[in-house]
């Protein structure tokens, strides 16, 4: 099982034993502006380290966000292309779920990642495996208004660290970015229990930054 995610500043890839719970190799680079440059070399490095060929991959798992438009689509397009070329399945997993799973927490908590524009992507969890709210994108001030509901909960992720005045239970000792190793293990666990994973479609939650300019003039040939 090849797992990858580019929904956070981390470009993360892992090769997982589809018949067990062992990670064969993993690569992790953090650079919010170079997802497209780093992803394929990371995949190549993981396959080489594990001594496996791409044709041996039976499942592709990809983080579907939420995440910024440009970075997120790099991982999704790559996963779809590999799955199509291999004739194999591609499974989607919420990026926040991967971060939650890596935390290992057994109590209610919050995962928050940096959404830029002074916003965060976030969701609440009952434990590391159980999300209890849909992913959302909000300004920290809106979250702070629900202090009794959220403020005192343990909080995981780069968004929580960035706005620790809002997420007062921030856990800087726990993972802040996505880990493809955790994503692969979570996906393998869910598949083993017969759970249906998400389609490989992006969770943008808002419109992209790039838009067609207003009053755009169409030029037609004479």
Note the topology:
Blueprint: E1 2-5, E2 10-16, E3 23-30, H1 35-50, E4 59-63, H2 69-86, E5 89-93, H3 95-103, E6 109-116, E7 119-127, E8 130-131, E9 136-138, H4 140-144, H5 147-150, E10 154-156, H6 158-162, E11 169-170, H7 180-192
Helix pairs in contact: 1-2, 3-7
Domain Gcp-like: 32-139
InterPro entries: ATPase_NBD (IPR043129), Gcp-like_dom (IPR000905), T6A_TsaB (IPR022496)
Pfam families: TsaD (PF00814)
Structural write-up:
The structure is a single chain. The protein has about 220 residues and is α/β, with parallel strands linked by helices. The protein is about 30% helix and about 25% strand. It is built from 7 helices and 11 strands. The protein has helices at about 35-50, 70-85, 95-105, 140-145, 145-150, 160, 180-190, and strands spanning about 1-5, 10-15, 25-30, 60-65, 90-95, 110-115, 120-125, 130, 135-140, 155, 170. The strands form 2 sheets. Strands 6, 7, 8, 9, 10 and 11 form a 6-stranded mixed β-sheet that branches. Helix 1 (about 35-50) crosses helix 2 (about 70-85) and helix 3 packs across helix 7. The longest helix has 18 residues, at about 70-85. The protein is globular.
